[in-house]
Amino acid sequence: MPSTDTITRDTTLCISLAARPSNIGTRFHNFLYDELGLDYLYKAFAPTDIAGAISGIRALGIRGCAVSMPYKEDVIPLVDELDDSASAIQSVNTIVNTDGHLRAYNTDYLAVAQLLASHQVPTDGEFAVLGSGGMAKAVVAALRDSGFHTGHIIARSQNAGRTLAEQYGFQSSTRVGDLRPRLIINATPIGMAGGSSADDLSFDPDVVKGAETVFDVVAFPATTPLITLADSIGKETISGAEVIALQAAEQFVLYTGIRPTQDQLQRASTFSRS
C-alpha cells in the first residue's frame, strides 16, 4: 500500500461497499499493490446511501468497487452495463469504472464453482442452500453448473425462494424440516461478525451432523459458529474466507489488468486473515 508520502493525485483508488465491512479485502488488495509496486490504494466503506455511493464512484473516477451483502442486487439499476457473469444471475459483486462507464461483474460465482471442484464435493448428493439474495443466486448457479441435480433453496420469503429454485431447476421451502442434505451452504449474514445474529447457527445442529460438507459464505469471521461446529465434529468445511480470497483475486485482475502468481495470491490471502 502506498505510504502517505507516496500517495498523489495519480494514485488509483479502489473500494468496497458492505453493510459490515471487514479488513480482509482491504488487506488482500493493498498487500498485492505493495508486492507488485502498483500506485493503487484500497479502502472499505459502509454506505448509508448506496445510490449516492455508486454516483461517487463515477464522479470521482474510482477504478473498482467490490459489492457485498446486502447491495448485490440493489446496484444493478445504478450501473451502465452488466457482464454476462452478473446478468445471468442478476447479482453483482464487482464494478469496474472505465472513464465513467460502470460495468458490473460477479466473481462470487467463479469462486464458489472453483471451491466445489477443489474440495471435490460429490455432485450426486442432495444440497440445501439457506438464503435467496444475491450471494445465494451465485451459489445456486455454481451448484447447477457444477453438475448438482437435487437441491433445496431454504428462504424465509416463500416467493423469493420459489423463484430462485425454479430458475435453476431445484426445490424450495421455508424451513429445512426433516431434510438431511449431504451438502449444506449458508448464503445469509447469519454468523457474520458485528450483526445481530453473529453468534447464531444458520443450520440446526442435527442438520450439521447429518451433512458431509458444510459451506459458509460468511467471510468474517472465517470460523463462524457454523464452521466451528462442523469442524468440531469432523465435517469437511469450506469457509467464506476461501470464497473471498478467490473472488478477490479475480477482482484484482479486473481492476489492474495484472494476474498475480499463485504464490503471491496465497501470501496475500494469508496476510488478509492474519
Entry summary:
The chain is an alpha/beta fold. The protein has helices spanning 24-36, 50-60, 84-87, 108-118, 134-146, 158-168, 205-210, 225-232, 240-256, 262-272; strands at residues 12-17, 40-45, 64-67, 81-82, 94-98, 101-105, 126-130, 150-154, 171-173, 183-186, 213-216, 236-238.
Textual characterization of the structure:
This protein has ten helices and twelve strands. Helix 8 links the parallel strand 11 and strand 12. The strands form two sheets. Strands 2-1-3-5-6-4 form a six-stranded mixed β-sheet, sandwiched between helices. It is 38% helix and 19% strand. It is an alpha/beta fold and 274 residues long. It has helices at 24-36, 50-60, 84-87, 108-118, 134-146, 158-168, 205-210, 225-232, 240-256, 262-272; strands spanning 12-17, 40-45, 64-67, 81-82, 94-98, 101-105, 126-130, 150-154, 171-173, 183-186, 213-216, 236-238. The protein is globular. The chain has two domains: 12-106 and 242-272, Rossmann fold; 109-238, NAD(P)-binding Rossmann-like Domain (Rossmann fold, 3-Layer(aba) Sandwich).
